[in-house]
Amino acid sequence: MDIKGIVLAGGTGTRMGTISRVINKHCNLIYRHPMILYPISVLKKCGIENIMVVVSEYSAGQIINILGDGSDYGVNISYGFQKEPLGIADALGTTRKYTDNKPIVVILGDNFFDPVPSDLIGSWSQTNAKIVLTRTIYTVGVFGIATFDCPMYRYEEDGLVKVCNGIADIYDTNYSGPRIPLPQFTNTYTITGVVEKPVDFIGNLMQTGIYMYDNTVWDIIDSIEPSARGEYEISDVNTEYIKRGIMEYDIYHGYWVDCGTPDALLEAANYAKEHMEIMSDVPWYRK
């Protein structure tokens, strides 16, 4: 597969608390193995073996000690360095020369998938862009939420008010109104935007940490401005593709965790312990 893989493992890991002062969060264990090995295995299972891992300068040695040149894991690993924690889009920008204008599949280093969404990655046209979405109950202030050209349905059931953006129910206690039949969500709906950490409910489909881009992405990264948080947001990159009408999407229905907090890391570790077969075909997993 003539695609370059990018794993973004920079940042400061502040959500992990004081431990992040001495351990890069991507080196924390998900049960038996460091977190960073899981996104590497996602790309490997999708047939992508040429991978750049972007790290921060202060913790580069920790990740390099784990991954080396990638030969222990059946891949070829190069390294990029993000000097300051200026956001995901900024980290991605450091990989421009490495990609050599090839299509790229980007995965955040703290994302855990089971099963690997190889079908969703394999169905990408390798032109324009594609993102992978999943359902979430954390619809406000946590993740980037996608919006579509389908209506948002609200209805009452068992004394609770629920909201559906075409795919799943969530609670909304600020609404009172009649029951409305739920539609069947399909990929025929057009994605209209991605809002990073919205302050109000706008939907319940969020972008996971897998992004697929053609070489248009570099010009887009150059054109975006820092957000109110002072970071270059990947949601702004995706929004620009959406504005141009060249964004694909698919919905992932498996198990997904952003392992960037202690609670999420524990959840993923317990899951991995109970479902060891998810990595049974990865040579390093049972070492």
Describe this structure in words.
Strand 4, helix 2 and strand 5 form a beta-alpha-beta unit. This protein has a 7-stranded mixed sheet. Strands 10-11-12 form a 3-stranded antiparallel sheet, with no helix packed on it. It has 287 residues and is of the alpha/beta class. It has 8 helices and 16 strands.
- Mean pLDDT across all residues, rounded? 85
Largest sheet: 7 strands, mixed
How far is it from the N-terminal to the C-terminal residue, by CA? 28 Å
Give the helix proportion (percent range).
10-25%
- What's the tally of helices? 8
Give the DSSP E fraction (strand runs of 2 or more residues): 25-35%
Low-confidence segments, ≥5 residues, pLDDT <50? none
How many domains? The number is 2
CATH topology-level name of the largest domain: Spore Coat Polysaccharide Biosynthesis Protein SpsA, Chain A
For CATH, the homologous superfamily of the largest domain is named as Spore Coat Polysaccharide Biosynthesis Protein SpsA, Chain A
Radius of gyration: 19 Å
Output the strand order for the largest sheet: 5-4-1-6-14-8-15
Summarize this, please?
This protein is α/β, with parallel strands linked by helices. The protein contains 8 helices and 16 strands.
For the structure shown, list the relevant keywords.
287 residues, alpha/beta, Spore Coat Polysaccharide Biosynthesis Protein SpsA, Chain A, 2 domains, 7-stranded mixed beta sheet, 3-stranded antiparallel beta sheet, 8 helices, globular
